[in-house]
Amino acid sequence: MKKQKILTMSTCGYSLRSCAESWGAEDGNLIDLTKEIGYSLKLRTPLYKTPMHAIADGWRLMVPPKENGNGVTIYYEWWFEKYE
Prior knowledge:
By secondary structure, the protein is mainly beta. The chain has one helix and four strands, in the order E-E-H-E-E. Strands 2-1-4-3 form a four-stranded antiparallel sheet. The longest helix is centred in the middle third of the chain and has 6 residues, at 51-56. The radius of gyration is 14 Å and the shape is globular.
């Protein structure tokens, strides 16, 4: 059975070509329900340079990027999913 993977990425711009500033991921295939979350994962998601690179690798954009920030620093948060 295929399980969901989630990729989050923060960029400094709204464009698909904006450079990734940070990222994170969860892989449903790696979760061991007999262990606490955080101790059962070994992340195997590559670092993508831009949101476009993630899409080219088969990730689906879940929602449009959301603008976040503190008034001084603005960044955009991207959410992707993939089933494997």
